[in-house]
Amino acid sequence: MCRPEHFTVSYRINPWMRPEHATDTALALDQWTRLYDTYRDLGFDVSLIDPLPGLPDMVYAANGGQVVDGVALTARFRHAERAAEGPAYAGWFRAHGFDVREAREVNEGEGDLLLVGKTIYAGTGFRTDPAAHDEVAATFGREVVSLRLVDPRYYHLDTAFAVLDPDGGPGSVAYLPSAFDAPSRAVLADRFPDAVLVGEADAAVLGLNCFSDGRHVVHAAQARAFAADLRERGFETVPVDLSELRRGGGGIKCCTLELRGVRTGEEATR
Ligand code: ARG
User: Fold this and answer.
1) 188-218 pLDDT, tens digit each
2) Nearest to 62 by CA among 41, 89, 80, 43
3) Residue of 156, 216, 219, 255 marked active site
4) Which residue of 27, 72, 116, 171 sits 20 to 30 Å from the alpha carbon of 136, by its own alpha carbon?
5) Which keywords fit this entry according to its UniProt record (predicted)?
6) What's the fold here for domain 25-261?
7) Is 254 a catalytic residue?
8) Domain range list for the chain
9) Active-site annotation holds for 133
10) CA of 247 to the centre of ligand 1 (A)
11) Which atom of ligand 1 is nearest to the CA of 127?
12) 219 — phi, psi (to 5°)?
């Protein structure tokens, strides 16, 4: 995670961002700290990267790369405003012992690349280039399934698609169907026949931008119907309000990059 010390909205690269409206960095820090504390209370091991001045979107750590089996594929941003975040996160991965692979194609990390079971679901349409999907498959030696986003409000896969159970299975994800083109909707229906289908109201508060360990789902406090659906399915729901960071177009998952080490022993067979 990355503390939003320099958070503000000074440019517009997604429809949520309104540079003409002032942001409250202290409030963003406060809300972010609550998310950090929530993760710690749940027992997660949280590492921090130093925020850099001039990179107001660096708080959205999910975009910093993708890390699977101890291998870190660096991010390569679509927009010049965020370009310097790629090397910043790459430096962190290197300093922390990950096997770093430099991306050649445009990919915005876990914003568009989500691991479900053994498969990586990869978004495209706004940010990550389809050519990056092949690069991801080659880098991690995993099946990559491409999904095309069509609604500019849901410009990253993690704004329209949530992993509820990292182990996978027919009901292991939630998504907003209208955010995808018809072929992608067909793929999702086929792969996840028991998915939670989320409505526009919950998606519009970035409800799908949640983080789950398979049991607890940390989600936007405003996504009430989604939370009720999750509880009905046996998940423990943990609401957190990130309304100030939503003004940059990001939520809980955006602020969270998962660091997956090399799996050994019993874990490797899951
Ligand atoms: N302002 C950032 C951008 O447009 C928000 C990124 C949100 N991150 C995410 N994983 N969806 O790039």
Assistant:
1) 999 999 999 999 999 999 999 999 999 999 9
2) 89
3) 156
4) 171
5) Hydrolase
6) L-arginine/glycine Amidinotransferase; Chain A (3.75.10)
7) yes
8) 25-261
9) no
10) 10
11) 12
12) -140, 165
pLDDT exceeds 90 at position 21: yes
Confidence of residue 262 (pLDDT cuts 50, 70, 90): confident
| CB-ligand 1 contact for 60 (6 Å cutoff) | yes
Residue 216's nearest CA partner among 245, 256, 248, 181 is 256
Cβ–ligand 1 contact at 6 (below 6 Å): no
Site to substitute for ligand 1 among 16, 163, 254, most atoms within 8 A of C-beta: 254
Q: What would the pLDDT profile of 150-192 be if each residue is shown by its tens digit?
A: 999 999 999 999 999 999 999 999 999 999 999 999 999 999 9
Q: What is the tens place of the pLDDT at every residue in 210-261?
A: 999 999 999 999 999 999 999 999 999 999 999 999 999 999 999 999 999 9
Measuring CA to CA, how many Å separate 119 from each of 140, 142, 194, 212, 251?
10, 6, 17, 17, 24
